[in-house]
Design a protein that fits this description.
The structure is a single chain. The chain is of the alpha/beta class. 27% of the residues lie in helices and 32% in strands. It folds into 3 domains: 95 residues, D-Maltodextrin-Binding Protein, domain 2 (3-Layer(aba) Sandwich), CATH 3.40.190.10; 88 residues, D-Maltodextrin-Binding Protein, domain 2 (3-Layer(aba) Sandwich), CATH 3.40.190; 67 residues, Alpha-Beta Plaits. The protein is built from 8 helices and 15 strands. The chain is flat. Adenosine-5'-triphosphate (ATP) binds next to helix 3.
Length: 283
């Protein structure tokens, strides 16, 4: 049995449960109640914890793997392995100061006081930059610290920056970026085999999210050029249409190149372009 620690509630919770669902892992209670749930169709037990406790729990062997933000792993300074980046809960951890304060480079932080919930990450950063600054640890509402005279600056999580703005702050230095990751430790063979199966499923789900299935019609003389733009996994399928000289091309394209590809395809004479989500994808 593989024991997975996930966040009980908060920003990681919903995406984590959806990922398990997309991986075909069904929790006995739907993940809705209690602190422990067993999957009824995969040898997995899920522990619901505060995200701060997940690294320790894995380190101590109570869980085999966990899903948590990279920032929490760094903050807790546990020697864990990042197994797979999961692409959600993307954010950055930045230093922010009041709007009218001028900070242009890390050295300008010298002598300031900085409030944060992530003292270890900040300490490591300041040390690397050779900066002496005092750190105030505060567990929440970090953004109000400069306004109430608690600190000159803050070091906190930023995603859109709107919270900073509404507190009269501006982001001046990005210290790290973070996203949710699957993290773990060395495991005995039997558990490692289960972990490999779990990771295989995660990869199939993530690949599918990043790609789209595309169908389009094109005249025979355009086939060569069009198939070069959408080469697909091995090569596209080309199926003759009932109308003489016309073909339907089926392929896979990456979400990242999507708009650019569609424009090119139109210019090249593709018609009736359909783009469909993929549920799972195994290369
Ligand atoms: P817990 O109660 O489990 O301790 P928490 O309050 O510490 O939860 P959340 O606010 O739920 O944490 O955030 C969990 C993780 O999501 C953070 O550690 C970070 O990696 C990421 N995160 C936090 N804020 C944002 C945001 N605004 N946008 C995107 N990701 C974020
Ligand atoms: Mg937390």
């Amino acid at each position: 049995m593989l024991t997975l620690a996930i966040q009980k509630k908060g920003r990681l919770h919903d995406n984590t449960l959806s990922l398990l669902k997309d991986c075909g892992i069904r929790l006995s209670n739907g993940g809705k109640e209690g602190l422990i749930a067993d999957a009824d169709n995969f040898p997995m037990r899920v522990l619901f914890l505060r995200d701060d406790d997940i690294p320790e729990c894995i380190n101590e062997g109570a869980a085999d793997v966990g899903i948590v933000g990279e920032n929490v792993i760094l903050e807790k300074k546990k020697d864990l392995k990042i197994i797979k980046k999961l692409g959600f809960a993307r954010c950055r951890l930045s230093i922010a100061v009041p709007k009218n304060m001028s900070i242009e480079k890390p050295a300008d932080l010298q002598g300031l006081s900085i409030a944060t919930s992530y003292p270890e990450i900040l300490k490591t950063y300041l040390k690397k930059q050779n900066i002496n600054a005092s750190i105030y640890e505060i567990s929440g509402s970090v953004e109000i610290s400069p306004g109430i005279g608690l600190a000159d600056a803050i070091f906190d999580i930023v995603s859109s920056g709107s919270t900073l703005l509404s507190n009269g702050l501006k982001e001046v230095i990005t210290v790290m970026t973070s996203e949710a990751v699957l993290v773990g430790r060395d495991l005995p063979l039997e558990k490692q085999t289960l972990l490999d199966q779990f990771v295989f499923r995660i990869k199939a789900v993530r690949e599918a999210e990043r790609n789209k299935y595309i169908l389009l019609n094109a005249p025979k003389e355009k086939l060569d050029k069009i198939t070069k733009i959408i080469p697909g996994m091995k090569s596209p399928s080309i199926i003759p249409l009932a109308r003489e000289g016309w073909y339907s091309i089926h392929s896979v394209i990456s979400e990242d190149d999507f708009w650019e590809n569609i424009e090119q395809l139109k210019i090249m004479g593709a018609e009736g372009i359909l783009v469909i989500p993929i549920e799972k994808m195994v290369r």
